[in-house]
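Hi there,

I know you've been waiting on this one. I reran it after we fixed the sequence typo, so this is the corrected version. Both the input and the resulting structure follow.
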Amino acid sequence: MQNVITRELIESSLTYDAYKSLVTKLIEENRTTGRDQTEKNINFTRLNEVRMKRIEKTTVITDEACNIVREIGKKVIFLVIAEAWCGDVAQNLPVISMMADKCDRISLRIILRDDNDEVMQKFLTNGGRAIPVLLVMDADTLEVLGRWGPRPEPAQSMMREHKNNPVEPYAEVSKRIQLWYADDKGSTLQKELAELIKALLTD
């Protein structure tokens, strides 16, 4: 597979702090990221900013996850494909950032889905442009070693069931998923990322 992720893309991507600053700026301008500048997406962006701040304050990275992350033996990039209006991004990106902060060999970078169609097309989920997608990359070669996303498996299972048998309205499924996130408090994401890191990057 030709690598559509170039050094220039990485250099122009956002840090987590830069991403949050962009979101705040866009909210002040009554805008959001992406092509769909609808009032619905702008309102979701406002909600997500509050949600991310709450998650940053309440999430605790487990000792087990910390220990695995700190065993990473080479420099890697965690490249996340995101948009500010996406509820799954808001629920998962703060936890990804907190885990990345536990190891100075991890560089977390963020790109916007609608600004990077070629990248998104390479990392679809069942043919869809679901986000977030986390790509674990070798920092020297930019080889994609593995991926995670767009949701922890229990939440993804709920969405999969809905798409296979869409009896329940999407809004209700989305609400159930958000309630699951609130109960889970990032613990499943930590376990899944720790397992991925252990399989890819530790001896």
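Quick highlight: The domain at 7-201 is CATH 3.40.30.10 (Glutaredoxin).

Best,
R. S.
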